[in-house]
Design goal:
Radius of gyration of chain A: 18 Å
Largest interface: A-B, 60 and 50 residues
CATH superfamily of the largest domain in chain B: Nucleotide-binding domain of ferredoxin-NADP reductase (FNR) module
Shape of chain A: globular
CATH class of chain A: Alpha Beta
Strand order of the largest sheet of chain A: 3-4-7-8-9-10-15-16
CATH class of the largest domain in chain B: Alpha Beta
Order of helices and strands of chain A: EEEHEEEHEHEHHEHEEEEEHEHEH
Order of helices and strands of chain B: EEEEEHEEHEHEEEHEEEE
Radius of gyration of chain B: 18 Å
Number of domains of chain A: 1
Largest sheet of chain A: 8 strands, parallel, barrel
Number of helices of chain B: 4
Oligomer: heterodimer
Shape of chain B: globular
Largest sheet of chain B: 7 strands, mixed
Helix content of chain A: 25-40%
Number of strands of chain B: 15
CATH topology of the largest domain in chain B: Rossmann fold
CATH architecture of the largest domain in chain B: 3-Layer(aba) Sandwich
Structural class of chain A: alpha/beta
CATH architecture of chain A: Alpha-Beta Barrel
Chain lengths: ~300, ~260
C-alpha cells in the first residue's frame, strides 16, 4: 500500500494537521467531546448540526448497529445558539460548525453566530430524516445555491454537505459551487429503513433513517468520483471510511481529505489508527493521488 | 474493547415478551421477560416501548429491569401487561470492577444495578437509602444475601437521613471496592466522603445521562470536562475521574442544553 507524506493540509479554506476529519453528528454534542477527538488525532472536527431553534430530536429508537453499518434518525437534536458558548473554549482550533436551516435566511443567521468561534461552516443540506430541513432543502439545486450563497457571502469558509438521495448528485454539487462554496462534502447518509420482525414495525422511532458505515462506502466513492468530474472546488470524501486504504481510495476518486464517523464505533481512536498506516516520511505527496483514478 | 475492523454485527432491538410484573414500591416495578441476557452488573440496556420511545435502564437480573415511573416512556411501560412485547438493545457499557470485599451503596431505584452483585454474593455490606420505608427497594432479597443497613430521609425505617448518615459507623478500610448508584446529589455526597479518605479511585459511580444512541457515537451523554461517554466509557465511572467534573453540578437535556442538578 502506498503511504502519504505527513504535513499540514489545506482543506476548503482551513489548515489541518492531517487529512482525517471527524464527521458531523459523531461525538459533536459538547465542546469537551470535540476536544477529546482532536486530542485523539482528528485533523479537524465537525460539530453536531446546529439550527435556528433548540430541538430534542426524534423519539427512540434513534440508532441500530447493523452488520456492516449504522442506521440512525436522531432528528437534529441541538441546543441552538447555546452551542456557541459550548465550543468557545476551542477557539483557534480546527472546529467546523455544521448548521442547518429551512431557508437561506436561517442558514445565514445561524452561520453568523459562529463568526469568530468556528474555522469554517458546513451546511447540512443532506440529513435524510428531518422534515423541512436537510435533504428536503438539499435536493433542490436552486435552494442549495441560495442557501450556500447566503453563508458564503459572510466571508467564512463554506462547506456544503450533499445528500446521495438524489438522481444526479453533480447537479447539487454544481449548485453549491455556483453559490460560492469553498468545498463539497460528499456524502451524508443513505436513506434507509429496518423493520423489527418481532414487533412488526420500523426499528427507528422516526421509521426512516440514514445508513452510514462500510455499507455505503461504494456509494460515497461513486459520488466523489462523479463530483470530481463535474465540479472544480475541493471535495471532502465522507461515507464509510474506516481504513487507511479507504482514505487512499477516496483520494483517488477525487477527495482532498476525508471525514470519518461510524468507524468511531469500533475504535474511538480510529484517527490515530488510520494515521499510523496512512502516513510515512518517505510517502508520496497527497496531491499526486487526488483524482488519479480519473482519465 | 472491540478492535478496529472487527465486524459490527446486527444489533437491531431484540423482541422480548413480558412474563411478569412485580410492584416493588408504590413507584417502582420490576418487569421480567422471557429471554435472559448475558451481562455484567452495572451494564444497561436500551428499552424500547413501541410507539413511544427508547430509554436506558439497568438490568436488575439477566431477564428483568426495575423501573421507576418518571417520564413518558416509563409511564407507557407501566401501562403494559404480561404477554406484551418490548424491544431491547444491549447490554451496553461497562459493568462494575468487582472486588473481594465490596461495599454497595444505593439510593432509591439505584438499587437495581447493584442487586445482581448482592445476589451473586459479591456485596459484603449494602447501604440502602430511600425517601421513606415504603420506597425502600429489594429489602427482603438484600436481607437474605448481604449485611443490609438502611437509612430513610424521614426516619421511618433505619437511620434518619441520606445513606451517608450510615458512614459514621462504617470502617471503609474493610472494603476493597465500593460501588454506588442513586440520585446524583447523594452520589456526589458519597464522592465527597470517599475523596476525604482518599479511596475515590476504588469507588465506582453509576451515572445517569440523557442517551440517544447507547453505543458511543452520538455524544449526547458526554460529560465535562473529560468528554467521556457515559454510555460507552461508563455508565460505571471511577470516582477519581469525577472529582473535577460536571458530576453533581449539571447535566444536558435532549437538546444538549445544560440543566442544573
Amino acid at each position: 500500500m502506498v503511504s502519504i507524506r505527513p504535513g499540514p493540509v489545506n482543506v476548503g479554506g482551513i489548515q489541518t494537521p492531517n487529512h482525517l476529519l471527524l464527521a458531523a453528528g459523531i461525538l459533536g454534542t459538547t465542546g469537551a467531546s470535540l476536544a477529546r477527538m482532536l486530542s485523539y488525532g482528528a485533523g479537524a472536527v465537525v460539530t453536531k448540526s446546529i439550527g435556528p431553534e433548540p430541538k430534542d430530536g426524534h423519539a427512540g429508537p434513534c440508532l441500530a448497529i447493523l452488520d456492516d453499518g449504522v442506521l440512525n434518525a436522531m432528528g437534529l437534536p441541538n441546543p441552538s445558539k447555546d452551542f456557541v458558548e459550548e465550543i468557545s473554549p476551542l477557539k483557534g482550533k480546527p472546529v467546523i460548525a455544521s448548521i442547518y436551516g429551512g431557508n437561506p435566511e436561517e442558514f445565514a443567521m445561524v452561520a453568523e453566530w459562529f463568526r469568530g468561534s468556528a474555522a469554517a461552516i458546513e451546511l447540512n443540506l443532506s440529513c435524510p430524516h428531518a422534515e423541512g430541513y436537510g435533504a428536503a432543502v438539499g435536493s433542490d439545486p436552486h435552494l442549495v445555491e441560495a442557501c450556500t450563497l447566503a453563508v458564503s457571502r459572510l466571508g467564512m469558509p463554506t462547506w456544503v454537505k450533499l445528500t446521495p438521495n438524489v438522481t444526479d448528485i453533480t447537479a447539487i454539487g454544481k449548485a453549491a459551487e455556483r453559490g460560492g462554496a469553498s468545498a463539497i462534502v460528499a456524502i451524508n447518509t443513505v436513506k434507509a429503513m429496518r423493520i423489527s420482525t418481532g414487533l412488526r414495525r420500523p426499528v427507528l422511532g422516526n421509521r426512516y433513517g440514514g445508513l452510514s458505515g462500510k455499507a455505503i462506502f461504494p456509494v460515497a466513492v461513486r459520488c466523489v468520483y462523479e463530483l470530481y468530474e463535474s465540479c472544480h472546488i475541493p471535495i471532502i470524501g465522507c461515507g464509510g471510511v474506516s481504513s487507511a486504504d479507504n482514505v487512499l481510495e477516496m483520494m483517488m476518486a477525487g477527495a482532498v481529505a476525508v471525514e470519518i464517523g461510524s468507524a468511531v464505533y469500533s475504535d474511538v481512536r480510529v484517527f490515530e489508527t488510520i494515521a499510523r498506516t496512512l502516513y510515512a516520511d518517505d510517502g508520496v505527496p497527497a496531491h499526486d493521488l487526488v483524482g488519479c483514478a480519473h482519465g | 474493547m472491540t478492535l478496529w475492523g472487527a465486524p459490527m454485527g446486527d444489533q437491531v432491538p431484540r423482541t422480548v415478551t413480558i412474563t411478569g410484573i412485580r410492584q416493588e414500591t408504590p413507584t417502582i416495578r420490576s418487569f421480567s421477560f422471557d429471554s435472559p441476557f448475558e451481562f455484567a452488573a452495572g451494564q444497561f440496556v436500551m428499552v424500547w416501548v413501541p410507539g413511544v420511545d427508547e430509554v436506558p435502564m439497568a438490568l436488575s437480573s439477566a431477564n428483568s429491569i426495575t423501573v421507576q415511573k418518571v417520564g413518558d416512556a416509563t409511564t407507557a411501560l407501566f401501562s403494559l401487561n404480561t404477554s406484551d412485547r418490548i424491544g431491547i438493545r444491549g447490554p451496553f457499557g461497562n459493568g462494575f470492577f468487582q472486588g473481594e470485599k465490596m461495599l454497595a451503596i444505593a439510593g432509591g431505584v439505584g438499587a437495581a444495578p447493584l442487586l445482581p452483585l448482592a445476589r451473586g454474593d459479591r456485596a459484603m455490606t449494602f447501604l440502602l437509602g430511600a425517601r421513606t420505608e415504603t420506597e425502600l427497594l429489594f429489602v427482603d432479597q438484600l436481607d437474605e444475601c448481604t449485611d443490609l443497613q438502611i437509612a430513610t430521609d424521614d426516619g421511618s425505617l433505619g437511620v434518619q437521613g441520606f445513606v451517608t448518615a450510615l458512614f459514621d459507623d462504617l470502617n471503609f478500610g474493610a472494603y476493597d471496592r465500593i460501588v454506588v448508584c442513586g440520585p446524583e446529589l447523594m452520589m456526589r455526597a458519597v464522592l465527597g466522603k470517599v475523596a476525604e479518605i482518599g479511596i475515590e479511585h476504588r469507588t465506582e459511580f453509576t451515572l445517569h445521562r440523557y442517551m440517544k444512541c447507547g453505543v458511543g457515537l452520538c455524544g449526547s451523554c458526554c460529560i465535562d470536562p473529560s468528554g467521556l461517554r457515559v454510555c460507552r466509557d461508563g455508565p460505571v465511572i471511577s470516582g477519581d475521574l469525577l472529582i473535577k467534573s460536571e458530576f453533581g453540578q449539571y447535566m444536558r437535556d435532549a437538546s444538549g442544553r445544560k440543566q442544573k442538578i
